[in-house]
Amino acid sequence: MADLDIPLAKSSKISHAAAEICKEAFNNAVDAVKPRKIVQKWLEESLPPKTANTSQDGATLLIHQNGDRCRQVTLGRNGGKTVLLGFGKAVYQMAEEFLSREELRPCVSDIILSIPFNSVPLDRINELKASLKAQNFEVFQGAKNNLPDQTSLQATQASLDALQGLCVDDTVIVCLSGGGSALACLPADGISLEDKLAVTKQLAGAGATIQELNSVRKCISAVKGGRLARAAFPATVITLILSDVIGSPIEYIASGPTVEASRHDSPSLALSVLKKYGLVEQAPESVRNHLAMQVDQSPSAELQNHEDNVFNIVIGDNSIAADAVVASLERSGVRGCVLTLEMSGEAKAVGALVSQLCLALQSKQESVIRAVCTRLCISEDKVDQLLDISRVNDGSSSFSSDDEEEENFPVDKESTNVPPKSTSGSGIIGLVLAGETTVTLQGSGKGGRNQEMALASGMCLHHLSAGLHAIKDVNMHMLGGVAILCAGTDGQDGPTDAAGGVVFPSMFSNADEELLESELKDNDSYESLSRLGGLLKTGLTGTNVMDLCIAVLPV
């Protein structure tokens, strides 16, 4: 396809400004879901005032669950132990905040944390250890590239060891976050780590959803699917969850180590997932045999009754991040709208649909807007809200001149940094989609779902802009002013050092389209975005509430 015959200099300048707004909004979203902030807020709600928190045994936590239900749990009652466990990308900071409280720190006797490889400096760990009187303090850093390894197994075994011999007066605090499935890993008897990894890779490569993956993983695990809580019986278990799963179903977050699986999943369901993707015969024999043996088994009545002493509490999710994006956009003079918290589907397809939605908004094609939103599973009320904010400049929503366009977009003429605020009603809107897409592997390239989504959206923007070139009343500078960011809030997209990507049309004006198509087909989005200058690198953020897609565009 020939390059667009439009003046790209001005639209490129505008799109760079839009990209900076996207990046700032993403950074603010990540900051809003920092684990210490989330735990701090929960503790403020759950710790009674100091004058009232005067138990002779230790600190008392007010556990709010199921609406009005409130349960008081006193740590260290009758001399009982308090064990603190953590599995996930955010749990070190979660534990830091919990242990920073003077009334809580002395109660904790054992601390076992399983966190990502090389995510926390040793001096920081040693500083925390020195401030505690815990009898047992261990931090394991494993699961490099989000895959369970021997360090994950060691951490999980150490956690189970710490739960041995607990009594009814003991309490277990479990911190869970994204990445927990890889960091809380101990295959069931008879299944090797290699076999567990093999079936997980087969399912992921076939395009299985995170829910389907977790359904299988928990059934072949010694700790997932409520088995960690069983190991703690008869102690009270309080699990604090920073959700990385759409809709925050607690049985799927880190594969539910403290949620009894019998009520949500079963070996029969796991076998049906393998069958759905044609993997029954390909799955390792140890996995097939274990699932077949477990089909008719169920927990004892005693363990089921113990669920009344297990509290799973979601203290943070992607709604916090999405709201923070909108707040950041509005500080930049951009009218924002959260379209969905349940973004899902094939990454390439979702990326292309987001681009189509942006250009449909700019070309005022309401029927197309509604059709694309339907495919993105965006509710009717959200579509109406989107149409409302895109009509903010009724009768003048297209820029009347080049000078007026540049004035309306909040471009900082003196700096390449984040643009200054613009006035309300500038005709610039921001779209926010939160959730998690999937990738069906077809090649052997390097990348991740967010990079693939960003690359696909950028290519689609470029192609569709050419088609809109001849439409009357469509301002081509506006089409060039779109920027789309797709990134994971954990800072690591797939087995790469990038969080995702940021794209806009002018990036692709001189690109080799055949090469890009080939790389996209080979799942090699990292190489493409690196060459185009579209990689977004934040480093590990220490949190995870799935992914964000942010689009900023003049309308």
What distance lies between the first and last C-alpha atoms, to the nearest angstrom?
Answer: 26 Å
Rounded Rg: 25 Å
Physical arrangement of strands within the biggest beta sheet: 5-4-3-6-7-8
Q: Based on DSSP secondary structure assignment, what is the total number of beta strands?
A: 14
| Low-pLDDT regions | 1-9, 393-426
Tell me the quaternary state. single chain
Helix share bin: 40-55%
Strand content: 15-25%
Shape, principal axes of CA atoms? globular
Descriptive notes:
- The structure is a single chain.
- By secondary structure, the chain is α/β, with parallel strands linked by helices.
- It has 21 helices and 14 strands.
- The chain has helices spanning 8-32, 35-46, 91-99, 122-130, 150-162, 180-183, 193-205, 210-219, 227-232, 267-276, 285-294, 301-306, 318-331, 347-362, 366-375, 380-390, 402-408, 449-468, 476-480, 513-521, 525-532, and strands at 60-65, 69-74, 82-87, 108-116, 136-142, 171-176, 236-242, 310-316, 335-343, 428-435, 483-488, 500-503, 535-536, 547-554.
- Strands 5-4-3-6-7-8 form a 6-stranded parallel sheet, with helices on both faces. Strands 9-10-14-11-12-13 form a 6-stranded mixed sheet, with helices on both faces.
- α10 (267-276) crosses α11 (285-294).
Give the topology, please.
Blueprint: H1 8-32, H2 35-46, E1 60-65, E2 69-74, E3 82-87, H3 91-99, E4 108-116, H4 122-130, E5 136-142, H5 150-162, E6 171-176, H6 180-183, H7 193-205, H8 210-219, H9 227-232, E7 236-242, H10 267-276, H11 285-294, H12 301-306, E8 310-316, H13 318-331, E9 335-343, H14 347-362, H15 366-375, H16 380-390, H17 402-408, E10 428-435, H18 449-468, H19 476-480, E11 483-488, E12 500-503, H20 513-521, H21 525-532, E13 535-536, E14 547-554
Parallel strand pairs: 3-4, 3-6, 4-5, 6-7, 7-8, 9-10
Antiparallel strand pairs: 1-2, 10-14, 11-12, 11-14, 12-13
Helix pairs in contact: 1-13, 2-3, 7-8, 8-10, 10-11, 14-15, 14-18
